[in-house]
Design brief:
Layout: E1 4-5, H1 6-9, H2 11-19, E2 23-27, E3 30-33, H3 40-48, E4 56-58, H4 60-65, E5 75-79, E6 94-98, H5 111-121, H6 124-131
Parallel strand pairs: 5-6
Antiparallel strand pairs: 1-3, 2-3, 4-5
Length: 147
């Protein structure tokens, strides 16, 4: 048990674990034991559990998971167009975007995709920070095919 969630231990027990310093909060409702370092690999694992199967976390949440941004207030998830996700609850609100085919690369988008999606879907303050280059690495240059 290296990830502790409010749903697993209950609201009161979770609050006490945090207050007593046994676990450190990562995102609302999810914490890590104090001896587990807060690393991008751990964040990606936690974020992958916050989106339904077949969807991919992207935007500011994925940037956070890669260690490039602050804790997100909402998780933007991309998935196949026309997919209806019902009764999905996570530690943070999840906003679903149908963008065609299921995205490759696992449950968390890479940095380039996350930056592009943050510019499309994030709240204005986050999108401005992304556009100013505050988050993420530089976007990969577009390679044009020789005709």
């Amino acid at each position: 048990m290296w990830i502790v969630t409010r749903a697993e231990v209950g609201r009161l027990a979770f609050g006490r674990l945090v207050r007593d310093g046994i676990v450190a909060p990562l995102i609302p409702g999810v914490a890590l034991p104090r001896d587990v370092p807060d690393a991008p690999r751990v964040r990606r694992h936690v974020l992958a559990q916050c989106v339904p199967l077949g969807c991919q976390a992207t935007g500011a949440a994925a940037l956070w998971a890669h260690g490039e941004a602050d804790t997100p207030s909402v998780i933007h998830a991309r998935g196949p167009a026309g997919r209806h996700v019902r009764n999905w609850t996570g530690p943070l609100p999840v906003v679903f975007h149908g963008v065609g085919v299921a995205p490759p690369g696992g449950a968390v988008a890479d940095v380039d995709t996350a930056v592009a999606d943050a510019l499309r879907w994030a709240e204005l303050q986050t999108a401005d920070a992304v556009a100013a280059g505050q988050y993420g690495r530089r976007l990969a240059p577009v390679r044009r095919r020789a005709s």
